[in-house]
């Protein structure tokens, strides 16, 4: 009985902490967002583990979006040396840069020409093995990769411009319908596809669209960093 009460109290404390965390985050986020937008009127630098990139205005920014930092915490544990890696929707390109700096052969894709052009310049200047490809999902990507890394948009709203496509997945999550529809025809047994979703993502809706394409999301790792939390999933074929 005592053990039960201890476990019950412990679980209640965990729930309370999670709830309090969400309240604090919801209060702080608007102020932080305004500050970051003001800061991003000009290019900013972002560095992870001594790998730095120049983030231009209008490009999905790891400074404004903690999902990139959280995803990188997972990626640093992967065996990527001498592996082929695709960052699908690279934005600032810091994930691609980190992988290339650690010995991977990287393809970075995006639909933002500004992001791709800047990443190409930085890859040349730093001697990173990165090929930048303009591609809407897999439209212009016909290669095999050991790893596919995806830090996707999560808001169920229609983007009005290229910049908003980094965070908005379209009404009814059209982004995920297209993503999973194209992934299902690839050989996932030979490719590890990792998808990062922050805690505020509508997981049920995303998983439902994966299931419609005979895919599922397998939980790999839950990551915590300050007030921010998220989960890395591996996209696998449903059995």
Main pleated sheet: 7 strands, mixed
Amount of beta strand: 15-25%
Task: Return Rg in Å.
Answer: 19 Å
- Judging by the overall fold, what is the CATH architecture? 3-Layer(aba) Sandwich
Give the spatial strand order of the biggest sheet.
Answer: 5-4-3-6-7-9-8
Encode the helix/strand succession as letters: HEEHEHEHEEHEHEE
Number of strands: 9
Q: What is the CATH level 1 assignment?
A: Alpha Beta
CATH fold topology = Rossmann fold
Overall geometric form: globular
CA-to-CA gap between the ends?
41 Å
Number of helices: 6
What count of domains describes the coordinates?
1
Instruction: Give the helix proportion (percent range).
Output: 25-40%
Write up this protein.
With 239 residues, the chain is an alpha/beta fold. It has one domain: Vaccinia Virus protein VP39 (Rossmann fold), CATH 3.40.50. Helices cover 37% and strands 24% of the residues. It is built from six helices and nine strands; from the N terminus they run H-E-E-H-E-H-E-H-E-E-H-E-H-E-E. It has helices spanning 2-39, 67-75, 94-101, 113-126, 174-183, 203-212, and strands at 44-48, 51-55, 84-88, 105-110, 130-134, 147-150, 192-198, 215-225, 228-237. It has a seven-stranded mixed beta sheet, with helices on both faces. It has a two-stranded antiparallel sheet with strand order 1-2. The longest helix has 38 residues, at 2-39. It is globular, with a radius of gyration of 19 Å. It starts with a helix and ends with a strand. Residues 3-8, 13-20 and 24-36 have low confidence and may be disordered.
């Amino acid at each position: 009985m005592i053990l039960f009460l201890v476990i019950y109290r412990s679980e209640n404390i965990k729930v309370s902490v999670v709830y309090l965390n969400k309240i604090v985050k919801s209060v702080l986020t608007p102020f932080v967002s305004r500050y970051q937008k003001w800061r991003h009127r000009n290019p900013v630098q972002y560095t992870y583990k001594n790998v730095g990139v120049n983030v231009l205005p209008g490009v999905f920014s790891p400074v404004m979006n903690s999902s990139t930092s959280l995803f990188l915490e997972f990626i640093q544990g992967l065996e990527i040396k001498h592996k082929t890696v695709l960052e699908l929707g690279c934005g600032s390109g810091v994930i691609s840069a980190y992988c290339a700096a650690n010995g991977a052969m990287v393809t970075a894709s995006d639909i933002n020409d500004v992001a791709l052009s800047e990443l190409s310049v930085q890859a040349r200047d730093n001697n990173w093995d990165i090929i930048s490809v303009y591609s809407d999902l897999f439209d212009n990507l016909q290669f095999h990769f050991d790893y596919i890394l995806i830090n996707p948009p999560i808001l169920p709203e229609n983007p009005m411009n290229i910049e908003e496509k980094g965070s908005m997945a379209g009404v009814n999550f059209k982004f995920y319908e297209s993503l999973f529809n194209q992934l299902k025809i690839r050989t996932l047994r030979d490719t590890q596809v990792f998808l990062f979703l922050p805690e505020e993502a509508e997981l049920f809706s995303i998983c439902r669209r994966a299931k419609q394409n005979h895919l599922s999301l397998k939980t790999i790792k839950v990551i915590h960093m300050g007030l921010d939390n998220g989960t890395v999933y591996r996209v696998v074929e449903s059995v």
